[in-house]
Structures are given as structure tokens and as C-alpha cells.
Amino acid sequence: MHTFSRRKFLALSALGLVGAQAASAVQPFARAGSPRFKLSLAAYSLRQFFKEEKGKAIPGGKLDMLSFIDYCADQGCAGAELTSYYLPNDVSDEYLLNVRRHAFLRGVEISGTAVGNNFALPNGPERDKQIADVKRWIDRAAVLGAPHIRIFAGAAKGVDDIEARKLCVSALEECSDYAGAKGIFLGLENHGGIVAKAEGLLEIVQAVKSPWLGVNLDTGNFHSADPYAELAQCAPYAVNVQIKTEIRRAGAKEPEPADLPKLAQILRDANYQGWVTLEYEAKEDPWTAVPPLLVQLREVLDAPAAKKEAAGWVPLFDGRSLDGWKVTEFSGHGEVTVEGGRLILEQGGDLTGINYARDVPKLNYEVALEAMRLEGSDFFCGLTLPYGKEGFTFVVGGWGGSVVGVSSINSDDASENETTQFRKIENGRWYRIRVRVTGEKIDAWLDDEQVVNVTTEDKRIAMRSGEIEMSQPFGIATFRTRAALRNLRLRGL
User: Fold this and answer.
1) Angle, alpha carbons 275-280-284 (nearest 5°)
2) Predicted structure pTM score
3) Shortest CA distance to 349 belongs to which of 339, 361, 335?
4) Which CATH number fits domain 316-492: 2.40.10.270, 1.10.10.60, 2.30.38.10, 2.60.120.560?
5) pLDDT tens-digit map of 66-78
6) Can you name the CATH fold of 27-310?
7) Who has the most CB within 10 Å: 125, 163, 223, 240?
8) Who has greater pLDDT, 25 or 361?
């Protein structure tokens, strides 16, 4: 069965989430159609050149919001993100309407604004002021015609992290209701503190259960060993995306250049549709660095082949629970847990596995995931899928650790039919797995290499006999190994 650590159980209990989430978990945003991106630039990218910041004059600053909008228009940006820090503290509706009018005449949409706040404070006047300030900016966003506001959760101050999360949820519920009444989305940013990790961020977003709250996905703000995995976990919940040109992994002394095509692919895989905003923070002079970056980002986002290939994927794993899945009752199976955005299948006597508990297509679909063998030397991904009224299993790393193939074809297993391949499988490495099923063929890829390409006419596709049959119609099993799974998704063809 699905288990939680004691620490996580206590945290969820404090938030009132145990049981409630299982009964009514907030799902990723359901977006029909294909990924669509609109390019914007954040005022924060030129922060040192504005005339004022939070009401204080910046020496030598020349920009105001009107001239920033002009800059966005001159760079060909569809949108401008108007970071609130660079508007006057006592900004009037008249001023905001003038900004809105100017943007319209320059053909630039106001993609959103961004505020600084801390909801992780104990009850009292200071916390009340934070809530009131966010509501004030919701009112101002409505005047500006800005559809989105980036907000923070904050760092715990005067309370422990568990209480801070509870207080943050309460404040977000109040502010989300207020924003929703005005048709404005709030985007909770992965900005350190109690949302420094994807798991903690999504716990809060899901706890609020508001259709007007999502994630403001900042691509430079996760600092784990694999920030891209955490970004992929959160992308289905994004209502705005801020692209940074660098990432910093855990333990690294220096940042590394961000892989922009990989970031774009993460958004496509999540079927994200909306604003992608460059928020420049690197050391180079922004006047020199930003224009070519906007050109590069536009090219990456507009790559038509990649968009077509990634269209229509639906995430099957929320990164934090077994919602939609159940543990397969193999005899002697190992424990199944969720840790750090990964499904962990512990080593069993033989098989350990999970079954997808919702409807799946019988033909004309694709399934993709990433899998890692953590310990052991046999198959760490036995992906069982429907084929019409029958089923089959795509095996990766079986028969002693190296066999890849389909079980079974004409009663022959993956180790002895036309799909049999041998690959060196390394423990501790993620492998990208994708299987495509149509009425005429079964295709499969390991990383970017096609390893199965078999026509099914006049062939009998069926399950290997034995306990693996319990994986039907759609399941994933391991054999005497400990494995991790992530980024599970499906799309119809």
C-alpha cells in the first residue's frame, strides 16, 4: 500500500490534508488542444535601471513602466510583466490606466504583475498587512488588465514550517477567492522558504483547491540534484512561467547555463498554454544580453516539430501521491512509496508493481515515462499495456539485466522473439521509455533509440503467463529490483 514518512504524515495532518486530499485532490489544469506559448519580458530583468524601486529612488535610473513597455514593443515581445516594485508606492488608478492605454497602443499585452509578500507569518497585524497588500494588488491588476499576479509563500517567521504551511494555505484561500471574483489568477512561485521543493509547493497549491491558484514556475529556483525533474513535476500546474538563463544544482559552487530546449520540452509535455516570461538575472549587462536571449527563446518556443511531437500528453502521476494508481497485489511484493516526486518500488520477493486505476485506450495511444534501476540486476520496468482485448509487457532490463523486448509474441517471450534486444543498463541512471500502440504496430523507444518496431498482422499478441498477468490492463512492475519512476504520461493518437 502507499505509505508516507512520519514527517510527511504529521505535516499533512497539520494542514488538514490527510483523507481530504485523497477524496478531492486538485488535478493539473486540463488544457485541450496543443501547447501554445506567448513571449513576455519581466520588468525585473532591467531592475537596476528603473527610476525607483519600492518607492526609493535608484541613482541614475531612467526607466519607468511606459518606457519599459516601449522596450518590450521594440524587442517584438507579445507581453510585458510589470513587476510591482517599479511602480510608485502610492500608484493611482489614473496612472495604471495610462499604463494600460500605452501598452494597448504599442500592441503589447500586460502579461501580469508580480508582488512580494510573506504568508508564512503568525496570526497578527503583520500577516494581516501581507494579505491586505496582495488584495490591493489584485485590485490594481484588475485596473491594469493583468490576468496574473506572481505571489510568494514566504519563509517561516515566528512559527515552525508545519504551522507556516497551514497559515499560508489559509491566506491563499482568502486571496484566491478575492482574485477569482475579479477574474485574476494567482501564481505561487517556487521561491525558497516553505516552497523550496516541488513536493512542498504542490502540497500547498493542492490544499487550497482554488481554480484561480496555480504555480508561477520559475525555472531557476529549484536547487536539487535534478532541478529539471522538479520543474516537470510542477509544470502541469503552471499558470505562468518565468524563464531564467541559469540553474544551480545542489552542492554546485557556480550556476550552469539553462538548457532552454529542455525547458521548452517540459512545458510541451505538460501541454502548457500561456505566457513564458524571460526574467533575466545573470551577470552580463541586460542591455547586451536580453535582446539575443529573446530571439533565442522565441526560436526555441516556436519549434514546430517539437510542438507537434509533444502535443496532447496527459500526466498520470502527480508527483506526490498514488492518486489514480493502486499497488498490485503480487505475492511477496515490496512497498511502494512516493519520495521527492518519484514513485519508489521497493524490491520484492519477485514482483513489485502498480496498476493504473482509471480507464485507458485499447489501441492508438502512446505511454511515456522515465525509470531508474536503483538496486538489483533484473527488469526495473515491465510496462504492461492493452492491445485491443489482449495485453503485452514491454520489458527493460530483464533476464539477468540486459534484455529489452515485448512479451509475448506468438507465445515467445521478450528474450526469444523478433523484438529481443540487449542493452547495457546502468543502476542509478534515468532511462526515457516510450511505447506506441496502433492496430498495425507496436513501437518502443529507449532514450532516443527505437528498440521495438514490429508489425502485428498475423501475430498473436498476449501476456506472458504467470503473476505478471495481474498488471493488466495497464501496470508497471519490477522483478527483484528496487526502482524509481517519474514523468508518467499518456496521449491518444
Assistant:
1) 155
2) 0.62
3) 335
4) 2.60.120.560
5) 999 999 999 999 9
6) TIM Barrel (3.20.20)
7) 240
8) 361
